[in-house]
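Good morning,

Both structures are done.
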Amino acid sequence: MREDRLWSLLSTGVAIAAGVTARKCAVKAYERQMGKPPMNPDDPDVKWRDALMWGAATGMLAGVARVVGRRAGQEAVRRARGTSRARKVLDKLEP
């Protein structure tokens, strides 16, 4: 597997994990604030407004977390590559 693909998979995995974690945190925050689990948007007793607001809120949080996670993963890749490149240069300079 090429190094670029490996790092791309790593940053994608970090982004997905960040999105899942953000959604779980949103559910926990709702439960703590309201004293009950969040409503199921598919339930016919839930108003459209409430279902859309919950979907928008969790979607936004998960999206932001994915962007932050992907950027953090890419930054880690850049640092790792910079370190390995610096080592290669230093190895060439040593007698």
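Second structure follows.
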Amino acid sequence: MKKDIKYSVEVKDGYAFKGVGGLVIRTIHPEVNGSDQLGMGVVYMYPGEELPPHSHFNEEAYFILSGEGYMTVDDEEIELKKNLSVYMPAESVHYTKNTGNEPLIFICALSPAPVAK
């Protein structure tokens, strides 16, 4: 039986999730478009918002679209800025904070897709 696959999803049609901090609009996710192993969304963090230190079994990557911030991945300190990619291995401890005066907006991809609702 063929899965119900959506090959394209606009942000407005994604699944809004506000978990540990920041607003995530999931656009690629098993519950949104039928993906098997990949989750992707757009994250909006407003000035001062942070994602507290956490880890999970998923690999994760960010691509910064706009704004600025700071993050740590294990013991690595990273200044976030437009057009920067950041990789977080599975089980790494990572923390993210918007240190700027405008929204920090980035693409977040995880493999396998996250299960949190």
